[in-house]
Description:
By secondary structure, this protein is mainly α. It starts with a strand and ends with a helix. Helix 3 (72-113) packs antiparallel against helix 4 (116-133), helix 3 (72-113) packs antiparallel against helix 17 and helix 11 (262-282) packs antiparallel against helix 19. The protein has helices at 13-51, 56-64, 72-113, 116-133, 140-168, 174-202, 215-219, 224-233, 238-243, 252-256, 262-282, 286-297, 302-328, 330-351, 358-371, 374-381, 391-413, 421-428, 431-441, 448-452, 459-465; strands spanning 2-5, 8-11. The chain is built from 21 helices and 2 strands. It has a single domain (11-62, 73-232, 251-465), classed as Growth Hormone, Chain: A (Up-down Bundle), CATH 1.20.1250.20. It has a two-stranded antiparallel ribbon. The chain is globular, with a radius of gyration of 22 Å. Strand 1 (2-5) and strand 2 (8-11) form a beta hairpin.
Amino acid sequence: MTNAENGLAVLERKGRWLVLMAAFLGWMFAGWEMSILPLSARSATIGLLQEDPETKAWVTSARSSQDTSASAEAEANRQRLKAAVGKWFFRYIAAFLLGAALGGWVFGWLGDYAGRVRAIAVSIVWYSAFTGLSYFVETPMQMCVIRFIACMGIGGMWPSGVALVTEAWPNVSRPTLAGLIGTSANVGIAMLSIVVKQIGVMFPDYQLTPDSWRWMMLLGACPIVLGIWVYLFVPESPRWLAGRKTPTKSTPLAEVLRPPLLRYTLAGIALGAIPLLGSWVCQKWILPWADQVGAQIGQESLKADTQTIWAIGAAIGSLCGGWLATYCGRRTTYFGVSFGSLILAQLIFTKLDPSQSWRFMVPVFLLGVVGTVYFGWLPLFLPEMFPTRVRATGSGVSFNSGRIVSAIVVLATSGLVVSDYAAIGSMTSWVYAGGMIVILLVPKLPGAAENLGATDSSSSAENQEC
């Protein structure tokens, strides 16, 4: 399925479309998997605590305290339960971030060592199988452990997927490809929210509540079929195959962690850390907040509606990220997105409430648009910092190491949570101010276009600016 172009092997048209489909669907279902636990975290935690004999009594009392005539003890238990949900939500996020970071390193290396397609296929099967196994957990801690393992596959999907698309479509506008890959995860997030809401409408017994949440984990097992299809039918990157013939003196991981590539790896880690912190340490608090308010006002679908609105905005923002970086400039775009995300997050968490209908949903949509431009920006920027032989490893280490930074921040701030989800969201939104500083310190990247073999007419200007 290859021919020659400019002395390099390239895939034929059918092969290129298979590659793009595999990368788009693989990252789309990674977004599907990412959103399963944030959407169900509150219900799953309450349900698991209520099933535990040691905590069942006070959790049952807390759930009954929605009644205005509840006793003072029941009200105290309600506050205790809200704090417990917040604590475990922090831990779930940390488990996701650390697992995805490890997966980015491991599967990124696998993509350079054994091939992009094999790494993508294994990543998809991995995150699907272990998310499905979450159906059987009995405690919140077990959920954390299996979430850590499952998210290794989520982190591993990104570097090999980006590397494969970049190498299979070398002469296509890189902003377009970056936007498509960036938006795919948010398409998956929106899809899951819509599916969950429709299941609740069609089958009332399967609404997402503390008494009915395990079926959500089975939804996470569905993409395993995609992983098998990728392994059997998607062609390998001809550039990677050609690169295997050139002997190297070091492993890809060692090469990206020492000069001259080390400075670019560190820059990539810093640039990836800000949007990850913003998404997982700040923005994700909108969901348990909406879940809590929805339970109070008898609108169980509020959390799913909120995630759907956010995800639609996120799909638009990430799709436009590459083009905005091209037309507005890399540094200008990153700085502007950081500033806009800070303003919108502060507005949502300090001035609004999930019960305010469209007054709340419109800023949530806008935060989804603005706060995810990063994820169309990063697939454009990170791969060009590294040559083909270490591209998956370099991109994986850069992007996913930011998750380690994010996890450390999550664990360090977990003790601050009591029961006010809006307060913690407001406080953590200041991470976006860090993005405004980080982009000013990023080194220039001369020769990035040559690394990719890009022919895009905008490449020179983009790289000179960066």
